[in-house]
Amino acid sequence: MEINNIRFSYQDKVERLKGVSTTIEKGKITTILGPNGSGKSTLLSVLSKLNQPTHGEIIFNGKSLVQYKAKELAKNLSIVQQTSVAPEDMTVEKLVYYGRLPYQQMFKMPSEQDEEKVNWALAKTGLTDKKDALLSSLSGGQQQRAWIALALAQETPYLFLDEPTANLDIFYQYEILALVKELCETDGLTIVMVLHDINQSMQYSDRLMVMKEGKLIAHGPSEEVITKELLQEVYGIQVMMKEDAGIGKYIVPVGPVHAK
Q1: Is 255 part of any domain?
Q2: Distance, CA of 235 to CA of 34 (rounded, Å)
Q3: Domain count, the chain
Q4: Residue 211, class by beta-carbon neighbours within 10 Å (0-12 exposed, 13-18 middle, 19+ buried)?
Q5: pLDDT tens figures, 141-175
Q6: Is the pLDDT reported for residue 128 higher than 80?
Q7: Using CA atoms, how far apart are residues 29 and 172, in angstroms rounded to an integer?
Q8: Is 163 helix (H, G, I), strand (E, B) or coil?
Q9: Does residue 127 form part of some domain?
Q10: Is the pLDDT of residue 205 over 70?
């Protein structure tokens, strides 16, 4: 996916993306980082065609993103939003079956392939034994896995995740991130996600995109992008850089740059 000088404004005409250009590498986990209001989720929405850029072009699999019709795009790219809502009587299995809509013909029952993909998605996310449970009865982490299962049932090579660990406790955060890593390394998915936690981003990403005020400040391999100088510039914080043989580099925040 090639991102060429993307600009975007909502109806308020305030420019939220300011000339973003980069490339999303196939078969990698790319994480978009940045402070609140930096344009992370806005960029993800434009990359998934939920919003149209006011300037620039996105090339996806050799074709301009605007040329994709909805059904064709839904077979190539799936997205899990930060906030998703389903009816209270929705079971997990029924929710996941919605991921098969791009492949189904009107007035026809789900096929054996549909059933196979739904069962695979449920197994992949550890929800097979919860398939008949109401979505509303699940824990926050289980609900997030159910929405990811829906996206997996869509059978797309690209998966976008907007803050998949938001509002989850630390156990479920790492459970979701471990699943994301497995989907990339074992199943070959190209994953783009928005995260807030810098250490989690370094640990679970191949590449990082760091944004500030609608601009792309840095993009590259995770171990190279995060520096003391970058974090001062983007977040206004002082940090200590550490390294552990098990998890690699990580940061310890010290305080605001202006602190005495």
Answers
A1: no
A2: 8
A3: 1
A4: buried
A5: 999 999 999 999 999 999 999 999 988 999 999 99
A6: yes
A7: 19
A8: coil
A9: yes
A10: yes
